[in-house]
Design goal:
The chain is α/β, with parallel strands linked by helices. It has one domain: TIM Barrel (Alpha-Beta Barrel), CATH 3.20.20. The protein contains 14 helices and eight strands. An eight-stranded parallel β-barrel has the order 1-2-3-4-5-6-7-8, surrounded by seven helices. It starts with a helix and ends in a 12-residue tail after the last helix.
Length: about 325
């Protein structure tokens, strides 16, 4: 098991960090794709499906990250986050709402008194192309406004150029700037090109103190593919085995249906383990996914299909 002294040794300089990251087992892409496809064929019973739909709702970070976002839109999103199905009070709240830093205060006020957390993207989202002082100012503004969670983006250019220590130190500095807020580290796996890079970036983020590793910003394709999800889940599982510390995974981008969400939950259980079937360790970053989860939940409970007007459309 890796001890604190071992972690300091691994990250003491760029050479040590590079040696560790490139010493990780390579990812068999064909094998990863095959296993992900096999897990997608698993079926679950009706009672398990009802549980899966509810836990999936509780794992959603309900997100709006558009240039045209307004306080009114954020308040409406927060109302839906608190009570996703106004006609059914048994429907659980989502995990969090995710907004830009300038709308954090609006969201904090709107979710007050509920279990819904407020997450904010920061560090020059979605590109990550800014100086470190600018990125940290972005984070501190969001935290000062009341954000419970920060979703940062790594500098993919630095990572792909092999400047691993620079990326590591930016994550460490961002974690410190978060104070009490949890840090989710967005890898933007669609730009990392290979599953080996996704594994290295995951371990880099975990070594630097990230509370979650996250697939993507949702602005780049491909994003949360099953093979990438498999690699991130293996990383947090292996990190927990090496250090005794459980960290989370957030899948974002392209997950729109309840069927997709349930398949990913099967993968979570099979790859990382049942401990990760909890909103504290697994999230979906999504906007439209919640609607399909609600439609499928109502179908499971009543046996009847609803029209699209059963749910609100953002």
């Amino acid at each position: 098991m890796l001890q604190q002294a071992d972690l300091r040794d691994v990250t003491r300089d760029d050479t040590s960090l590079r040696r560790f990251l490139h010493g990780l087992p390579g990812v068999d892409q064909v094998g990863a794709e095959s296993r992900a496809a096999l897990l997608a064929t698993r079926s679950i019973k009706t009672t398990a499906k009802a549980w899966a739909l509810d836990i999936a709702i509780r794992m959603v970070d309900l997100t709006t990250l558009e240039g045209a976002d307004t306080p009114g839109k954020v308040r409406a999103l927060c109302a839906k986050a608190r009570r996703p199905d106004p006609s059914d009070p048994s429907a659980p709240s989502v995990a969090a709402v995710c907004v830009y830093p300038d709308l954090v205060a609006t969201a904090v006020e709107a979710v007050h008194g509920s279990p819904v957390a407020v997450a904010s993207v920061a560090t020059a989202f979605p590109s990550g192309r800014a100086s470190l002082p600018t990125k940290l100012h972005d984070v501190k503004d969001a935290v000062a406004a009341g954000a419970d969670e920060i979703d940062m983006v790594i500098d993919r250019g630095a990572f792909l150029a092999g400047r691993y220590l620079q990326v590591f130190e930016e994550i460490v500095a961002t974690k410190e700037a978060c104070g009490p807020a949890h840090l989710k580290v967005i890898l933007e796996t669609g730009e990392l090109a290979t599953l080996d890079n996704a594994r290295r970036a995951s371990w880099l983020a975990l070594l630097a103190g990230g509370d979650f590793v996250k697939t993507s910003t949702g602005k780049v394709t491909p994003s949360a593919t099953p093979p990438v999800a498999l690699v991130l889940l293996e990383a947090v599982r292996d990190f927990a085995g090496a250090t005794g510390e459980r960290r989370g995974v957030k899948l974002a981008g392209g997950i729109r249906t309840a069927k997709q969400a349930v398949r990913f939950l099967v993968m979570v259980n099979e790859v990382a383990g049942e401990h990760w079937l909890d909103p504290s360790l697994f999230r979906f970053g999504a906007s439209s996914l919640l609607n399909d989860l609600l439609l499928q939940r109502h179908k499971t409970h009543t046996g009847a299909y609803d029209g699209p007007d059963y749910v609100t459309v953002e």
